Model the fold of this input.
Amino acid sequence: MSPRLRVLVAIASFGTKNDRYLLRAVEEYRSMSFDIDIVVVSNLHKQVPSGVEVVVVDLSGANPWTLPFAHKEILATRLNDYDLFVYSEDDTLITERNLVAFLEVSAALPENELVGFLRFEEGPDRKRHFPDVHDHFHWDPSSLRSRGNRKFAVFTNEHSACYVLTRQQLRRAVDSGGFLVRPHCEGKYLLLETAATDPYTQCGFKKLICISQIEDFLVHHLPDKYVGMAFGVSESELVRQVNALLQIANNVHAPASLFQTETNLRHASYSKNYYEPVRPDVVSAIPSCVQSVLSLGCGWGATEKWLSEKGIRVVAIPIDPVIPGGAKAGNIDIICADFQTARQKLASDRFDCLLVPNVLHLVPDPIDVLASFRSLLSDGGVAILVVPNVSRLVTYWRTISRNGSLKLFGGYGRTGVQLTSHRTVRHWLRSAGMVPVNIAHVLTAQARVAGRFTLGLTDRLLCSEFIAVARNCEAHSFRGQRIDGQA
Done:
């Protein structure tokens, strides 16, 4: 009879707030058919079941979010004593099903690929919610790959508050020099998150999700605190995205995204939001006489669906073929192609409105893109641009301050984002052959206060976004306007 698998589990648990979840996780591990040792890493002594080890870390004068990094030394020093190593935060439930699937799938992967997990939450109705699917995080369709009869893809949010490594994988991580490191958060994740993402971001592994048996790689975020909030997606939306990936996986060539949607700035600031809501300040800028709209850089399609339901003909060029679920449900023509190919396919068509939401600051040549699609506008047609004010004063302060969260110097080639301003937007429009009609300034609550004291003179400097309207015809008078909104 072969010996049972030896598993070491390290759980980070700060304070007492999540103790009920910690005990639930410990109970789950102790019910498994493996030989499991559990170590709880905390800033204080805890009452835990007999046999569970508690390692107390002195955080005097340190950021509490550095606590999770203490687990790494524990795993590394016990590398030769166990077959499997698990790390998680104290509110994340990993099951035996998860670990069995991890071992089975890992055996079919090359040494630089690491299967990972996605978190879910449950509402009172038992429906599941996926909080990590939000903002700029998305499936990368170009990452699709087959390993045996299984399908895998990269989800760009590597954080799931946990990871699992075999002994060989942990040794590779330690040898890489990126595992046993001081607490840090230089990349796109916060300090608390980097402790769980370092194996993927610093140790040479590529995190993959096994989409062909995704149920085996879902882990429960026990607090369920994001259910009912405008944060994350429903289970039906996740299933739709996974099914789209599985259909694409049957193609010979996996498609790339329309443009690079994630910036190289810290915390991926100014990246494209794949799940943009319908914004009244944007749709109200569209003239009431518009009967057709071309949406460039469509995300999941909430705005496009809303426009279609108003009786407007909508054609959308999405970021990628996975994301536009709302658009597909809204009787909208979708063209999945690169800029040049999409432009050629639409060469004989004309539109009353070109909608470009948070796209131009992310492409290498905004003027070229805008000019190319301007020619598809009818005479007198309008372009509606949404552009973040990357050059605003707050951004400059964060750039030059010691603890600033943004690093903007170096240009687009280094940062992946254009340094935009009120003047930049006007320059783009005019260089593309369009006449600016209006540029509205979207202000945060704090910026509105400052604007009142300066009679609006600082609005263009302090606003978080510009909503620009331009016409494809003879010159019109240009004026600035403020729209009160949220960043």
Q: What stands out?
A: The longest strand covers residues 377-388. The CA atoms of residues 399 and 406 lie 5 Å apart. The chain has two domains: 6-248, 267-484. Residues 267-484 form a domain with the Rossmann fold fold (CATH 3.40.50.150).
